[in-house]
Amino acid sequence: MNPMSATPAPKNKFARTHPGWSVWLRRPSVTALSFAVLFAYAFFLLPTKDTAPPFLFYLSINLFIVLVLAFTGNILADPKKPEALKMIAALLLIAVFCWLFYRYSGAQWGRLKDFFFNWETLEGNWWILWQGLEVTLLLAFISGIGSVLVGLLIAVLRTLHSPTLNFFLKVYVDVFRSIPMIVVMVFIFFALPFMGISLGSIVTTILALSLGYGAYASECFRAGIESVHSGQLEAARSLGLSRWKTISKIILPQAFPVVIPPLTGTLVAMLKDTAVASIVAAPELLKRARELYTSETNPTPLVAAALIYLVVLIPLVRAVNVLENKLQKRRKV
Amino acid sequence: MAQPASSQTNISRLSDLKDKVGHVPFIRRNSFVYGSLSLLVIYALFLLPSKGSPDTVDLGRIVIFCLLLLVWAFIIFTDELKPEKLKTIMVFSIFIIAGWLYYRYSTARWGEMGFLFFNLEMVQKAWPTLVEGFWTTLLLAICAAIMSTVIGLLLAIFRSFNNPVLNFFIIAYVDFFRAMPIIVLMMLIYYALPFMGIRLSAIVSGILALGLNSSAYVSEIFRAGFLSIKKGQIEASSALGLNPIQTMRFVILPQAFRVVIPPLVGNYVASAKDTALASSISIIELLKAGLSQKSLLANPSPLIFVTALYLVMFVPLTRFSGYLEKRMKESQRQVRL
Amino acid sequence: MFLRTSSRKGVKCKMNDTGAMIEVVDLHKRFKDLHVLKGISTSVKQSEVVAVMGPSGSGKSTFLRCMNRLEEPSSGHIYIEGIDILAPYIDINRVRTEIGMVFQSFNLFPHLTSIENIKLAPMSVRKISDQEATERGMALLDKVGLVDKAKVYPEQLSGGQQQRVAIARALAMQPQIMFFDEPTSALDPEMIGEVLDVMRNMAKEGMTMMVVSHEMGFIKEAADRILFLVDGLIVEDGTPDQIFNYSKNERTLEFLSKII
Hints:
The complex is a heterotrimer. Chain A is mainly α. Chain A has helices at about 20-25, 30-45, 55-75, 85-105, 110-115, 125-160, 165-180, 180-190, 200-225, 230-240, 245-275, 285-295, 300-330. In chain A, helix 7 crosses helix 9 (about 200-225). The longest helix of chain A is centred in the middle third of the chain and has 33 residues, at about 125-160. Chain A is flat. Chain B is mainly α. Chain B has two domains: about 20-105; about 115-335, MetI-like (MetI-like fold). Chain B is about 80% helix and about 0% strand. Chain B is built from 13 helices and no strands. The radius of gyration of chain B is 30 Å and the shape is extended. Helices cover about 35% and strands about 25% of the residues of chain C. Chain C has ten helices and ten strands. Chain C has helices at about 1-5, 60-65, 90-95, 115-125, 130-145, 160-170, 190-205, 215-220, 240-245, 250-260; strands at about 20-30, 35-45, 50-55, 75-80, 85, 100, 175-180, 210, 225-230, 235-240. In chain C, the strands form two sheets. Chain C has a six-stranded mixed sheet with strand order 6-7-8-3-9-10, sandwiched between helices. Chain C has a four-stranded antiparallel sheet with strand order 2-1-4-5, with helices on one face. In chain C, strand 9 and strand 10 (about 235-240) form a beta hairpin. In chain C, about 45% of the residues are buried.
């Protein structure tokens, strides 16, 4: 139905009573026109590198970004536009961002090879990074076991429903969920020695991670235990199963699939947080990379360390995603 | 079911029960509690090493003592029939015993404890720096929150268009920033980028790292919010004759809002906690302020104060976001019923 | 509370031999300030089928659940075969093995198949071998007409089938008494019959049963007695014939007029 023709007092009661912005926006002519306007904007209004005053400089770039987003969004949101046009719009959007970054970030691209991917600086030094990675994984492994144990203990103690005990357990969980991990580490490493407790950096890290992530893990376990319906407990008890039989045969098997996804997520977050241990001089990957960066005065080791983190963590992050999606689907069924 | 023979055996089993009703398992008897308690006391009196810093063997004895104590407490705690008063007393006495063991064997100089740890004078000296650090922390948190919301919302909207090219880049972006530890990101931005000619101040680097990291999570939260709206809802509102804007305003947004707000608040709190990482690139935020004042004054009081401040700030925030999430779950359950 | 304060020394089981299978004396249950059971006294003989009726909120379910201590009674005595099961340090799990319970919402264990649901308690409580437990379990499944569903998980069963498996699970412990807590009220109408048939057969075979239910047909046919509960008290106690045809109690008549 043509929106414009409907304006003079319609006999047809189904006709549009307003011009309809969305219909107007979706006309091909509007798309073409707005593209031309954007093009002109890019040519004449975008500042060259350092000429404009800073305020205008940022304003015009940001306005340009907003316009580009609105333009491509308008095309992509229209179900009637052909797929090919949408593809072009998507590519255009990405190209514009790359181009803006290339032009305005002030980066000297010629240096990329020398400073970011200068693998010569790492020749003969790779073993240092590997050693760092080993320490990182070892820290994560031990503190992973530690935090699972702490979490399990807290969750089991909470099922005893003793008010006094619950109060203290809640305080524990609250405290460790509230303080940033780095503060815990710094506190243990820099303040406790004044109290006569001097722990090495490795022990500090393991202790901080186990205690901190133990609190998170306990919440995962608790959610799992609470997800088991109370009727299940009653059925088990009416059959005469003892407390431990009920826990091992009824609660745990049912809680397990609910606990695993968030627990994996917690452990992956913990693996990421091992990088914080570089603050307390634990010789893990980031710390070793920083040492190399200082001695070589070249950031390639930092880049290499970041890449190693990505290679290790991206599959884990994806795995957690998959697990969580599965759980959600199961819940919906 | 109840054939005569089997019901016969049943009855004999019940009378079997009659002999056993008075039976109390050994570890649940009062005599066990008293006996093991006296054994623990004897252990403490004779086997615990004397005061002073312990060597390895002594340390072993202390550790064994602690383990025995905990096992004993666990046995009593798992007994439903022991009175709650006893359990309360036990919790407190375990705290007291732990404190006593610590007092006895640590090498801390107890006389200087007040001077070292709760020295208000030192906190006062450090006060201007700490206040400055506090404002920096706040600035970091707020800027990162705004940045992550804007980027995350845009990512989620463009993700909802389901364009394969864009999706590839958005997923790559989200995975990249979710997998990268924030502290590594900060160091890359602050220490590595200047080599390429991109010079950013410490504060901007910190905001950028926090905001980019957080935006990945925020985009997932918004996406989940969009996805949570069932197709039937949109169909139902078009069946009622609502136009797209009305559908958005009255049907989609209110529902998405309810799903999005709790995790979003949780994410802001987490990202505010992560501002402490900015101390690693020498931004004088709260933690760095405490640390620097600690080394300047050679007294840990500022650090203790900062830790306490983090607690005071974040315990309510964490509780609040936990409360929101719980309420959301409950409302969802009601809907399902 | 009685249980908590009593001394542990010299625990002797209290006997009350009246020859009844279940004897309840002045049973009270309070939830904080809500007084649900206000002194219930009754007794059930061996092989008797007792139906418990009453308006909702009258405490029927609570009464049943107190009898195997899924709810702790606030005061009173419950004797099963003359043993006071509220006595301190009675091993309530051993008592529960003698009392089968069937729930309104089935409460089958969703992570176990039908046969595993049935085998679980005999194997882990009675320590019966896997083979024997399986044989017995299959016999019970045969009895409830579900042999072909042995290896199927509860979520793939219909409500009526789930409830029959739940009955078989309770029977696998060879209990002397069976409690049914509204066993058919969560079922679609066409499935109620199959569950009631199983219960009828059990009644014929001489099982002692207490049934919270409003299935008039079943009660008229199978029940020996009806307990009529109102506000936590037994207001009437008699045979179905007495109650349905000759009751003079106002509350009973009002209730009956509503459900017929």
